[in-house]
Design a protein that fits this description.
Elements lengths: L8 H7 L2 H7 L19 E5 L5 E4 L3 E2 L7 E2 L8 E6 L6 E6 L5 E7 L9 E5 L4 E5 L3
Antiparallel strand pairs: 1-2, 1-9, 3-4, 4-8, 5-6, 6-7, 7-8
């Protein structure tokens, strides 16, 4: 897959911390309930930590009690891409930044989420950076 931002892995490794690299570039997952943004209520925009692309807005963040920040809709439908993920013995939809291809988390669907989209974008805190809205 070709992305607008296409860097060699050595460059990504130099620009990201080891944990950021593990999640963003190797599709890792941070432990549940440990992420910086799991419980934050700060208003603002969540950007890709690797390339700065706007991914989610705080107004779509909700309490899902899953252990990771959850959103019901991306900031723009073109901001993320969804890919089938058959790891872990199940079918899931992986969420990646559409601009740089970095792994963000997974999206789950179902009426049980009781969101306007019936979706839960379960995103690793370390994959995003919150830019607070100025008051």
């Amino acid at each position: 897959m070709t992305y607008e931002i296409d860097k060699p892995e050595e460059q990504w490794r130099a620009e990201l911390s080891p944990e950021e690299y593990r999640v963003l570039r190797e599709s890792g997952t941070e432990p549940a309930f440990t992420g910086e943004y799991t419980d934050t209520k700060t208003e603002g925009v969540y950007n890709c930590r690797a390339c700065g692309t706007e991914l989610f807005r705080s107004r779509t963040k909700f309490e899902s009690h899953c252990g990771w920040p959850s959103f019901y809709d991306p900031a723009d439908s073109d901001a993320v891409e969804l890919l089938e993920d058959r790891s872990m013995g199940m079918l899931r939809m992986e969420v990646r930044c559409a601009r740089c291809g970095s792994h963000l988390g997974h999206v789950f669907e179902g009426e049980g989420y009781q969101t306007p989209t019936d979706q839960r974008y379960c995103i690793n805190s370390i994959a995003v950076r919150l830019v607070p809205t100025e008051s």
